[in-house]
Amino acid sequence: MCSCNYPALVVHPAVVSAGGPNNLFAPGEADTCFQGSGDEARIGGAAPYGGCWFYNAKMQPKSLSELVSSYHDSVGHNAFWLLDWTPTPTGTLRPDHIARYKELGDFLHECYGRYIMIT
């Protein structure tokens, strides 16, 4: 069941006035690790993104609530959400990863998969 209780979007006046002399707007990007959370995200020490950006057999997928929170914190504030894929060294995806990606997709479809208003 979808519970889309997220805070109202607050838009900074600089964003509303568009961006600069060429009137361009470039939203931010939120690079998001799919695996690891809390201390798990630091496994690997000096590895890029704390070792969570690439496949790590010791890490589990983030919980659905963590992923949804990350989605709302990025897309809900006008940024692109770049969620990494984490294939194994053989190029396959772990079953628990596939299940979490589907769970996230189902949540997003349930919450945002219908038109609020047709123009």
List the helices and strands and how they pair.
Layout lengths: L12 H4 L11 E5 L31 H11 L4 E5 L11 H18 L7
Parallel strand pairs: 1-2
Walk me through the structure.
With 119 residues, this protein is of the alpha+beta class. The chain has a domain at 34-112. It contains 3 helices and 2 strands. A two-stranded parallel sheet has the order 1-2.
List keywords for this structure.
single chain; 119 residues; alpha+beta; two-stranded parallel sheet; 3 helices; 28% helix
* Order of H and E elements: HEHEH
Strand order of the largest sheet: 1-2
Low-confidence stretches: 5-12, 14-19, 40-48
Instruction: State Rg.
Output: 17 Å
- Structural category: alpha+beta
Helix percent reads 25-40%
Number of strands: 2
Instruction: Give a quick account of the main beta sheet: strands, pairing sense, barrel closure.
Output: 2 strands, parallel
- Assess the beta-strand content as a share of residues: 5-15%
Overall mean confidence score, pLDDT: 75
General form: globular
Number of helices: 3
